[in-house]
Amino acid sequence: MTDTITFSEKKQHASALRAAANLPAIQTWHGPLESIAFDEEGVRETLLCLDDPVYVVRLGDQIGVTRAGAVGAAAVDSGTNESAEILTVLSPLPLERLGDPGFSEWYGTRYAYYAGAMASAIASVPMLVALGKAGFLGSFGAAGLPPARLEASLQQLKAELPNGPYACNLIHAPYEEALERRAVELYLQHGVTAVETSAYLDLTPYVVHYRAAGLSLGPSGDIQIKNRVIAKLSRREVAAKFMSPAPANLLAKLVQEGKITQLQADLAQKVPVADDITVEGDSGGHTDNRPLVCLMPAMLALRDELQEKYEYERPVRVGAAGGISTPASALAAFAMGAAYIVTGTVNQACVESGACDHTRGLLSKASMADVMMAPSADMFEMGVKVQVLKTGTMFAMRASKLYELYSKYDSIEDIPAAEREKLEKQVFKRSLDDVWADTVKFFAERDPEQITRAENNPKRKMALVFRWYLGLSSRWSATGEKGRELDFQVWCGPSIGPFNDWTRGTYLAEPGNRRVADVAMQILTGSAYLARIQSLRNTGVQVSARISSYYPRQPLI
User: Fold this and answer.
1) pLDDT band for position 1 (50/70/90)?
2) Which residues contact 98 (CB under 8 A, 6 or more apart)?
3) pLDDT (tens digit, 9 = 90+) per residue, 244-253?
4) For residue 23, what are the contacts with CB-CB under 8 A and spacing of at least 6?
5) Cα(408)–Cα(138) distance, rounded to whole angstroms?
């Protein structure tokens, strides 16, 4: 097809285009003419050979691509007589070159890509195992799990991924500090060497304890960092805390309590709290709904500012999350300077996630507009919200009603009888007294202090009762609780829409075909392919609309 590839031939800039490609004014390609692909399928397949250089050549009035042959006199000397004019050369672009190779070296992965944590083990052990075996990092969704289940999951991870790579989530829990503290104790006990923090508003003694407890001096006097931290956040003031050394007062208290040594406290003053900052744009779960295109430049500038101040031996890397679900969005993040990329919502739609089949089916049909904000369970009293799926569930509306009542009344008893009856029949489907009895049993194992505080504070008691619904709704979504489908809380960002659009008409449109490592490979492969397309455009070579897009055609793993 003669219109598959075209070349800008304006005389005034043709030489400049060749100069941009580091080619002399006229260059010649030498090689077998039958190796040149001119048709749509041949051009696509050649460009997808990412490990090889690709020559873009003109033969007569046709422009094509080939991996064979060579450029210049060396090819002539080798005895290859067939030749064509060369327009540009695409360098190899293996997937390992996307992002910062330092990320892969630090966490023992093959690719600068990881699957972020989703609470309640939505980011499950099977998901992490599948990712780890394929060379990707995954972060276990530890948030919301009782200590016994978290410990069992850690033991399973150690058994199935003894050499990693994997990380575990450490979520800020201002109303349940015991959970955050216990998670850190378990991570240290079981040798978890990487955590992904989330929802932090400030540094806590627990995250500082984890970081400092892994510091030591190497044989040559260099600082060894065993416990590595990826901080997922979207606020500059929070990022500054994680990019800076740990506060002296927190370190001093940890030394006094015997949790770290004085040497570790001293070393913690020379390294940042986090090795990596994941800049989280508009996403599922806890989110500020901020656009990544604005956040990334600001965070990179902050990193450079603090690096100049502290002169770390190993500068903090900055990665991107939120809205990344297609090759185009992944490439955009890398182009903005992301050292690595992070996916979330799309992984929940995969078969290895902790979500049930019904939830995955809802996600497979969602569009970009099918999300909304709703009160969060863990920070309900603070008015913090999470982004959830609104289509196919009434959770967001019902949760918002609970927060409206909480804001308006001081106790359950103050709620008008008609309103209370409606809650018991439509939302809780049981009496609020029974819900309170269940809440007492729940916190007796999890954090008994919560009940002690609530018994003397009617407002606090009301919050715990309302959180019963908020907490169970996400569990129902995971287990597929029959009769509760309209109450499923499905954490979901708008990126699910573009993902469904991209996979429509392909094998990945079917929920049962969505496997997390394959999805990751498709996104990265498409990103590298689109990078090659952009390189062609930058040198004046234009390709047809059909070739300039990448769609998953068959499983890559």
Assistant:
1) very low
2) 111, 112, 113, 334, 524, 527, 528, 531
3) 999 999 999 9
4) 86, 88, 89
5) 41
